[in-house]
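As a warm-up, study this chain.
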Amino acid sequence: MSERYNIRETEEKWRKIWDDKQVFRVTEDPTKPKYYVLEMFPYPSGRIHMGHVRNYSLGDVVARYRRACGYNVLHPMGWDAFGLPAENAAIERGAHPKDWTYSNIDAMRVQMKQMGLSLDWDREVTTCAPDYYKHEQKMFLDFLKKGLAYRREMMVNWDPVENTVLANEQVVDGKGWRSGAAVERRKLNQWSLKITHYAEELLQAIKTLDRWPEKVRIMQENWIGRSEGVEFDFDIEGGDLAVGEKLRVYTTRIDTIFGTSFAVLSPEHPLSERLAQTDAAVKTFLEECAAIGTSEEAIERVEKKGYKTPYLVTHPFTGEKMPVYIGNFVIYSYGTGAIKSAPAHDERDFAFAKKYGLPIRPVITGHGYEEGQPYPPKGKLINSGIYDGLTSDEAITKIIDRMEEMGIGKRRINYRLRDWGVSRQRYWGCPIPIIYCPDCGTVPVPEDQLPVELPYDVSFDKPGNPLAHHPTWKHVNCPQCGKAAERETDTFDTFFESSWYFARYADAHNQSAAFDRAKVAYWLPVDQYIGGVEHAVLHLLYSRFFTRALSECGYMETAEPFMGLYTQGMICHQTYKDQDGKWVYPKDVVKDERGTWVLNDATRAPVTAGRVEKMSKSKRNTIDPQDILDSYGADAARLFILSDSPPDRDLEWTEAGLGGAWRFINRLYTLIMDRMEFITAPSAASSVSASDSVLALQKKAHQTIDAVAKSIEGFHMNKAVAKLRELANALEEYSPQAGDEAIHREAVEYLLIGLNPVLPHLTEELWQACGGAQMLVQTTWPKVRAEFLVADSVTIAIQINGKLKATIQLPVDTPQNIAEKAALEEESIMRTLAGKTIRKVIVVPNRIVNVVAG
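Now compare it with the structure written out below.
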């Protein structure tokens, strides 16, 4: 018997060898095909979590497999290091954001290396380092020159306690997620990037991303939100309006124009704000609207309210005078900030009209139409004069034609996509390289003065942005006139850094430029990108914008950053609560002798087991990967996480599953080491023929390595592991015989090579013990002999009167009379046919035997 497998010693040994020999360092090599594997880089929170383990294990399988297939593989790692949690740490723990971040990076790097990932650490990037963000400051200045960056007044979520802008995601039930203060909508000057410049291109290019999940492509299409409609003018009167003033609206459903009974302004519309200057009730209503927030989700959720203005609009075809309301549900940034409302054909407008007693006139009918209920679909026009009987699409064309002839409207394409506001009132972010001079206005920081670095000596004892109340940092001389001026104190949205980091990996040490054009041309686009579906819109869309903007500015010639995208599922675990209803960590519970969950302490107090849910700190159903790595090793963690379920589905973490992975590793180690004398023995004399059993093993080895390759390429990692386990079982069942040495060794080699992307440490150890000529990580993926891929047998379906009753395995091309006999002798078929008359048997070779009986 072999010695027990020493997990810690073996895994440390091979990580040191890989590191010492720098086997994962890579340079450009035009003689080899390249393959760029990238997982979304982590935020350095201090410790890796199980989601990281799954994400990076998936990427590592791909990277190791592609390297074995002869590709020049780039597989880098870095840190998305700016962000709000570092400022929270400064406030809560008294730690400086920079110190806290770099300390966390050091700790997480150790954990990452412990996982045995095939990463080129020489290309490591840290986005909060000045030698990284100086390049994005240069990019911003280039965007500014090209008209792709600008400063404008825009509506934002404002936290009056924190004195800062909040992202929509940071507004919870109308309140700041940290302060709990009611959020206000405010107009502030903010820097923006003109992503809408590429709206149509971004939309159309989605069709080329055939290696992206369909759900992600649909989400991006919906976010861009292309719509075709008409922009037209109502005549408007009343209040202090001058004669001849117009109200411009945009609609995609002009076919409902004859059902229009009122118009609605957004709270930010100039006419709304004009009324508020003289009408206290309007001002109060606008303040209520401002408390909702700016996100579409928040606006959609809120109870729909309106305020009737003194204005009236004139229907362009009937001449009817119709009221104008201010509505808390109209978004100023979409279309024109004003809408026409046909309440019979819009559920939101229907509810609004019912609430305020406004006319509801049906003008569209069709399948599912119900009187007295809103009917949003397109259909056939009624009550619409000369347009009656037309389909909605026909009417839309004709009505827009008529409006253009009248000079009151024009066809327009609109996008839901808005330009990207990148200003944040935060310290821990990249400074925006702009100076404001009283005489010269807005002045870009000269390129030879980049980077504009963050000051270290900041305090967090006041609300708001520490940069704004720093005593000296913001005070500078104007680069143009030399007079006293001030720096921009806002910093970039942290999505800025993650929108181009994948290109920096191509040339991570370049100090004079963000990257060399030739190097980025060699490596980009990323061949396989892996990450969570929660980034399906913003990060991925911003990255797609960046490659286009950088190409326009001469940095590269790459439109799409990621050719292949894979979104992995969540890691889940059962939840537990104590007697007081407080969440309990899994490590703190245990089953007692009666099989009841109790606290794993002296009290043995009962615990209630709840649902299996996504791992989260708030519900304390998390597992610390460090405990797993220390107790079971990286290979066991990788094996379980890759084998338990398809990677795109949620995975339930169980101790039993992990234990099974650990037992397989030890069983495989024992099997190979106990057979080492036979594996390393010289081949028998040519006069000794190989046994049938080892020839069957050889065929299975070739079929397995072929199936594993296809499964990895299709991201069916669990299927690959299942096939390799089957080969291991077959190897275990085989009894060594003289004359089988060479073929047996080949089967062992195929198993170890196939398992290497999953279990890199164990397989390297066994490969070395078997006398491998070079490290397994440097060994080529085996060639498969085509003759071994031909199936020996097929599954035959047995039907009775056309209904499937059983299946049997038969040799390929079994004669029809033998197939019929085998089917009729199948035990369950014999029972079913007992007492019945067989009238006919139909045999479809290699597929079906259908028995007609009665």
